[in-house]
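Retro notes (design track)

What went well: tokenization of the new backbones is finally stable.
What didn't: we kept losing track of which sequence belonged to which structure.
Fix going forward: every design gets posted as structure first, then sequence, in one message. First example under the new rule, 679 residues:
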């Protein structure tokens, strides 16, 4: 177009022939038509865009729930100024968070407990927008210094974040266990990292030890934490120690039983209509296909179970854990119902009085008291002090009421009484009700107070290469007499023991899911492995050995496979004796070292056998680049084994003790020394 308007155009064009003029006209026509078409197209699309403008509000309404995931907006909306985040695997950290959030009202503050998985934690930088605001973190450490499942995203964010948290005030209470190598790693990391990002710590890091008395550690920290909060914000305790109900009871007299929960963890009727993927909120109902006693004698019952996972799409690897949801003993449930004079088949709901809370019920509702006490609530562990405090009001005898209040107090005498009368005597809620005849709380309040029954984790004792449709468990039933003469039984192991392999029926079904672990065989099959696992600690190594045998059958070069196993008596509790002998005969298990601790006057444990073979152990580790695996008791065995490795490294590596410790720690960092331990 600009070329046609150029002033330097050649004047001879105007005197061109008629044919040329006709041609020019047709070109002009084409141009005009193109221009009109272009204008029309532009107008058409412009008009469409104008029409789409009213659609924007719809887009905004779709985006609204994202804003709801902001804990800041929620706190502003509900008038809260304290948020207590919890990283919880077994429910204890969540319980502590709820208690701290509930405490806040006594100081004229309002708190809320929050699951970090449900919120965007980058909003922490905005917490200063709220007056007298504070973030508290109750963080449990799982496994070998790992975050709990629900705190994994928060942990990842903290590692990568370069946020400015200078306006944030915080405090951290960690939940750990001193028998583990990485004691309270998560609590320590959160406390340190928040300070690095500019946040202000208003009270010192609390370190709870589950190997000692976690409840007392928490109470001791909490009784100093609140005065520090009061001093920081210039507030005073209102003195209100009154019991405040969090849930209200609704009894359903005319209810459609198809809408009542009967033990499901998440979706209603999920056990009748199973849909993958299966996880903690949607467990798979696996059929028990085998349940046999492993030991030939002795008082204990050691068992091998096989769970059928056909058609579940569940995948697992050697070293993973299987989580099972157990059920409480029906006789304990019935006795609680009888003592409290309750019809356990009453269908009810406990509805949160805080309508803004994400947690609408303490467990799936509506359900019956029987279902709640059987599948949802922990009735076998000694109750924590907050439960005793809340229940005290229902003791008609003033002496019993005073005793309960004293045990729930922070006074030294009260703590000592709680430790001896509840913790050391292993009194569960039923035993407390039996030993305090005047204590008769309403069953709905008791259900509100009791913690959730948690899944139990077991190291998988099989390889998916050999058993793709089956998961094996090796466990010992827990049974002991308490100081009060009662017989206490482990919830999960007693329940698993009762599972009879049959073709049909719930008596053989186990709700389960798989939890991934870092306990893995080396990437190269040719890498030697040293496995140390006494007792049921042999479980993951049965999977490892099966897998190495399978790899060998595939024609792969498999490195030395060395096992150090221990049990009490050769003729009583030598687990998987035949299988291990077969693997050794086939050349898969290159060394089988077994310590029978009580078959001679002097006790012999796995660490003694390691010392006996120290030269070979050092050669495998130093020259063969072997991977070391330890599974079993954390309190004694794992520590003793680690100390033995320090000695071996020091002697054959010509190192000082600190250098040897550093050497073993580096093996851990490189993934060459792995632990799967419990206490």
């Amino acid at each position: 177009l600009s070329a046609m308007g150029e002033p330097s155009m050649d004047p001879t064009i105007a005197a061109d022939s008629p044919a040329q003029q006709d041609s020019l006209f047709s070109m002009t026509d084409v141009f005009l038509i193109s221009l009109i078409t272009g204008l029309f197209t532009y107008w058409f699309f412009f008009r469409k865009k104008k029409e789409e403008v009213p659609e924007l509000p719809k887009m905004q309404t779709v985006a609204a729930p994202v804003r709801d995931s902001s804990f800041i907006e929620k706190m502003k909306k509900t008038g809260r100024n304290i948020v207590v985040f919890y990283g919880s695997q077994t429910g204890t950290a969540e319980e502590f968070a709820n208690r701290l959030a509930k405490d806040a009202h006594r100081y004229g503050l309002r708190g809320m407990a929050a699951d970090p998985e449900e919120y965007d934690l980058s909003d922490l930088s905005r917490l200063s927008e709220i007056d007298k605001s504070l973030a508290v973190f109750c963080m449990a450490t799982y496994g070998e210094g790992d975050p709990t499942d629900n705190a994994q995203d928060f942990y990842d964010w903290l590692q990568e974040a370069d946020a400015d948290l200078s306006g944030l005030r915080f405090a951290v209470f960690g939940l750990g266990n001193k028998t583990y190598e990485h004691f309270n790693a998560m609590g320590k990391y959160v406390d340190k990292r928040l300070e690095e990002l500019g946040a202000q710590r208003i009270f010192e890091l609390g370190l709870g030890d589950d190997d000692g008395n976690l409840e007392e550690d928490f109470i001791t920290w909490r009784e100093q934490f609140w005065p520090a909060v009061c001093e920081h914000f210039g507030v005073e305790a209102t003195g209100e120690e009154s019991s405040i109900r969090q849930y209200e009871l609704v009894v359903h007299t005319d209810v459609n039983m198809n809408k009542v929960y009967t033990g499901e963890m998440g979706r209603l009727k999920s056990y009748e209509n199973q849909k993958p993927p299966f996880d903690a909120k949607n467990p798979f109902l696996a059929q028990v296909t085998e349940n046999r006693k492993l030991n030939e004698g002795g008082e204990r019952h050691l068992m091998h179970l096989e769970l059928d996972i056909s058609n579940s799409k569940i995948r697992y690897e050697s070293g993973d854990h299987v989580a099972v949801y157990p059920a409480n003993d029906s006789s304990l449930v019935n006795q609680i119902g009888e003592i409290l004079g309750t019809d356990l088949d009453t269908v009810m709901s406990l509805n949160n009085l805080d309508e803004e809370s994400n947690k609408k019920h303490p467990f799936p509702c509506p359900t019956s008291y029987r279902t709640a006490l059987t599948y949802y609530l922990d009735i076998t562990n000694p109750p924590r002090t907050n439960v005793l405090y809340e229940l005290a009001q229902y003791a008609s005898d003033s002496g019993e009421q005073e005793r309960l209040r004293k045990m729930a107090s922070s006074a030294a005498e009260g703590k000592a009484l709680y430790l001896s009368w509840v913790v050391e005597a292993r009194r569960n809620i039923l035993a407390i009700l039996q030993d305090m005849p005047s204590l008769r709380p309403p069953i709905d309040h008791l259900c509100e107070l009791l913690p959730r029954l948690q899944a139990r984790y077991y190291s998988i004792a099989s390889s998916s290469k050999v058993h793709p449709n089956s998961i094996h468990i090796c466990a010992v039933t827990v049974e002991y007499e308490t100081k009060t003469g009662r017989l206490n039984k482990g919830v999960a192991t007693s329940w698993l023991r009762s599972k009879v392999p049959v073709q049909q029926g719930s008596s053989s079904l186990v709700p389960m899911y798989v939890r991934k672990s870092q306990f893995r065989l080396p990437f190269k099959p040719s890498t030697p492995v040293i496995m140390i696992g006494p007792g049921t600690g042999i479980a993951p190594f049965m999977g490892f050995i099966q897998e190495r045998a399978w790899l060998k059958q595939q024609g792969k070069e498999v490195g030395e496979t060395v096992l150090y196993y221990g049990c009490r008596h050769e003729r009583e509790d030598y687990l998987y004796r035949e299988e291990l002998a077969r693997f050794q005969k086939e050349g898969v298990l290159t060394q089988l070292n077994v310590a029978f601790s009580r078959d001679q006057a002097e006790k012999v444990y796995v660490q003694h056998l390691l010392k006996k073979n120290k030269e070979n152990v050092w050669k495998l580790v130093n020259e063969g680049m072997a991977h070391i695996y330890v599974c079993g008791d954390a309190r004694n065995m794992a520590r003793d084994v680690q100390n033995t490795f320090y000695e071996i490294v020091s002697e054959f590596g010509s190192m000082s003790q600190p250098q040897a410790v550093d050497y073993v720690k580096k093996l851990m960092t490189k993934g060459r020394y792995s632990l799967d331990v419990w206490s």
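Added context from the reviewer: The radius of gyration is 33 Å.
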